[in-house]
Specification:
The protein has two domains: 137 residues, 3-Layer(aba) Sandwich (Rossmann fold); 70 residues, Winged helix-like DNA-binding domain superfamily/Winged helix DNA-binding domain (Arc Repressor Mutant, subunit A, Orthogonal Bundle). The protein is α/β, with parallel strands linked by helices and 220 residues long. The chain contains eleven helices and six strands. α3 packs parallel to α4. α4 links the parallel β4 and β5. The longest helix has 22 residues. A six-stranded parallel beta sheet has the order 2-1-3-4-5-6, with helices on both faces.
Length: 220
Amino acid sequence: MTLRILIVDDHEVVRLGLRALLSNQPDFVVVDEASTAKEALEKVQQHRPDVVVLDIRLPGENGIVACRNIKEVLPATQIIMLTSYAEDEMLFDAIGAGAAGYVLKQIGGDELVRAIERVGRGEALLDPAVTQQVLARVRQAARQEQAAAFNDLTEQELRVLGLVAKGHTNKEIAKELFLGEGTVRNYVSSILSKLSLTNRAEAAAYAVRHHLQEFLEEFI
C-alpha cells in the first residue's frame, strides 16, 4: 500500500531533508509541504494525505491547532507530531487533539520510516523517550482521581473504610484499630454520610471501584 504524505515544518531545511528521505521509500509519496497551520489545512484538503508529519511548534497557530483542524476535516488522516524535546508539555495536548504518533526530531531515518508505516496502518505510536512522560502524566491523573474520590474522609475514616471493604465487622475493625465498637459505628455512619451511600455493601463497592487499597498503600 502506498502512503501519501504531507510534510509540515516551518524550517525549509527540515522539510527538504524529510522529503529527500521519504521520497526514497518505494511505498511513500510526498504529496506536498507546508510551513504553517493554515497552509497545512489547505494542503490537507487539497491532497487528502494518509499521513501528515507535523512539527509541534509552528509560528502563529501551533501544531496542536493544526492537528485538531486536520482531524476535524479528515478524521482518517493519521498525524505524527515532530518535537525537539521529549518533555514538551504540548505533547499531552497533541494526544487530546488526535495525533497518532510522536517522535523526536533526532530520530534516525529508518526509525522515522517505520513510525510512518505504523501510523499508516492505523497503529498508535509513542517515541520511547516520550512514553515515560505520557505514562507519568496518566498515572498522575489516576492518583488525582483517586484522591478526589476520598477527599472528604479523614485518615482514620479511610482506614475504617479499607477494613469495611475487606468484609470486617465493627468488632473486628475496633480490635484492628484499637477503637471502641461505638467509635467504629460512628466512623462508618460518617463515611456513609460523606460518600452519600446507604449501607456497608455500597461502601465496600465504592472502595473497590476507586481503588482505595492502592490509595492507602501509597498515601497513608
